[in-house]
Amino acid sequence: MLNLTDVYLRQDDFELRANLTIGDGRCVAVMGPSGAGKSTLLSILGGFQTLTSGRLTWHDADISDVPPSQRNVAMVFQDNNLFPHMTAFQNVGLGIAARLKLRKAEVDRVNTALDAVGLAGLGARRPSELSGGQQSRVALARLLVQRKPLILMDEPFSALGPAMRLEMADLARDIAERTSATLLMVSHDFKDVERIADDVIWVEAGVCLPPQPLSEFLASPPSGFTDYLG
């Protein structure tokens, strides 16, 4: 279970506050207007932002000051975090070993992950030789081999077309379920949210509301949600 207790971050004129709990194994969409603090929330969870005050705990262990490299967190950003000079296999293998010195069992694990995301036979290709959807699949395969209990995704499919976004959302949820991970994904596309989310965290004016089941959120949405949908 992930707990944010009296979390407060101040950066110049920007403030973000959160008091919420996220259950294990939940798929959570993070929504809100541009500039509200959605990506900042993920940065806090990933350890890339230092809290001004408050406490962040994972299964009752205080991780507020734990550096990113020591957190059990996997992150995917808009650009998929792929190294252009490395092959798809190598980019996935980085999720296991930074120096890519893989044992046979780990090589098999990478190939199995590539197969699972529909990239069988494409491990030798570099990102420039892959389509946008295939690059997203490489990033998801890396999540699969990392086996982290908390997955953070910041608009990972925003550059893809509508049909491919939905396919990738399905795949991301499948990976979270396979690994029993808790997933938080920032998205501006409500179709993605409907596809992936158990719960929704609404962020507006620097305040993160506690997660609500998607059905409850839609039955009684916050005041800014209608304007958000346009």
Oligomer state equals single chain
- Do you know the CATH topology of the domain at 1-71 and 184-230? Rossmann fold
What CATH architecture of the domain at 1-71 and 184-230 would you give? 3-Layer(aba) Sandwich
Please write the CATH class name of the domain at 1-71 and 184-230.
Alpha Beta
Largest sheet: 11 strands, mixed
Distance between the termini: 34 Å
What attributes characterize this protein structure?
230 residues, alpha/beta, Rossmann fold, 11-stranded mixed beta sheet, 11 strands
If you had to describe this structure to a student in words, what would you say it looks like?
Residues 2-230 form the ABC transporter domain. The protein is built from eight helices and eleven strands. The chain is globular, with a radius of gyration of 18 Å. Helices cover 35% and strands 24% of the residues. Strands 1, 2, 3, 4, 5, 6, 7, 8, 9, 10 and 11 form an eleven-stranded mixed sheet that branches. It has a domain at 1-71 and 184-230: P-loop containing nucleotide triphosphate hydrolases (Rossmann fold). The mean pLDDT is 92. It is of the alpha/beta class.
